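EI: anyone free to look at a 125-residue chain?
SC: sure, send it
EI:
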Amino acid sequence: MQSHSVPDVPQIDPATAWKAVRDEGAVILDVREPEELDEVAIPDVTHIPLGQLSAESDELPRDRDLFVICRSGVRSAYATQFLMQSGFDRVRNITGGVIDWAQAGLPIIIDGETVCVEVPGEPAS
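SC: here you go
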């Protein structure tokens, strides 16, 4: 049986990625399938399923940081690798995907409603 390894790509943790989105205008690219977004989504992201990324990557900004996310961080690592090979030099994979994002207490959308939570380490407003 062949072992498939995850590409070694630049990483960013979910809390740091969310801070960069809010403070610096970074963009999050969610590469999960549409039905996965029905279960849980992240607010204000760009969505391009991994299988469509090669056809639609020209729509992504090259002048801002781009952070890629999926369910657990594996598909997004492949997407990050593809984007790097396509000339995106400000792209990083969000470690642990939506699973770690939610466990970090960051905003998610469940059943059409945003669950607002505090960013770890920041005082509530």
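EI: The longest helix spans residues 74-85.
SC: 👍
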